[in-house]
Amino acid sequence: MTPSNTSTSTLRSSEPAPAGHAARLAERLALPVKDLDLLARALVHSSYPNEHPDASALSNERLEFLGDAVIALIVSDALYARHPDEDEGRLTQRRAAIVSTRGLSTLARRIDLGSELLLGAGADRANERERPSVLAAAFESVIGALFLDAGLEPTRDWLLGIAGPELEARRSASSFVSPKSRLQELAYARTGLAPAYRVLRAEGPDHEKHYVVEVLLGDAAIGTGEGRNRRDAETAAAAAALTVLRTGVTAAGTGGSSS
Questions:
Q1: Which of 1, 11, 175, 249 is the S-S candidate for 152 at Cβ 3.0 to 4.6 Å?
Q2: C-alpha angle 49-51-55 in degrees, rounded to nearest 5
């Protein structure tokens, strides 16, 4: 299946993003791409064109939208084939763990994607290239660009090679229970209290919100997390809080959902 040229052309500008980062990434990861300008677009964070108006570089947001759907399809198909004895609920939980902010940022770090991102100076100083939500979005964008350039099968082969450990993982049923559910059970058993969640910050435009959430047990904040939506941020905060309750060591929320 090869996407139409019309879809590709709508994503290109007359002055494409710098291709040096894309060329390095393609060579390092053996990406089967021909259009380095399109791949370069996948590496452009929204902060970059804001600070480089002369470059006329579109950000990777449209490619992120496409890549999200392509990843869901490929991962769903692979899980269906590799785990024939699991029901719909278990397969859904497996997929959610892989395609979540945390799951995709793990894949992005595996290929050191952050080092090739193009960010504005302010975002770079704030170390946005290491933020889970930014990494997850960039990974989706790379998949979107690869799909447009090479088609579904090469994209599938490449993605399955990167995500192999997650797709093959043999995990206990309890490991698929969300951190929020596990925290509620543990907190109530330990203290008789139910955790509560509070949004500390919701930043950015509607299409690219970034949430920071803390989880409270009584009056005490026991974890923080961040994500591209409130659910992801709450899940990340719950995961950090679980570490606190189990070990007594404060775990700073690092963002991204694991469910």
A1: 1
A2: 50
Tokens of 148: 């447009």
Catalytic machinery residues: 68, 140
Residue-wise pLDDT tens digits, 92-125: 888 988 998 888 999 999 999 999 998 888 888 8
Q: Which residues pair with 215 in a beta bridge?
A: 197, 223
The Cα-based distances of 250 to 177, 197, 224 in angstroms read: 22, 17, 10
**Per the confidence metrics, is the pTM higher than 0.85?**
no
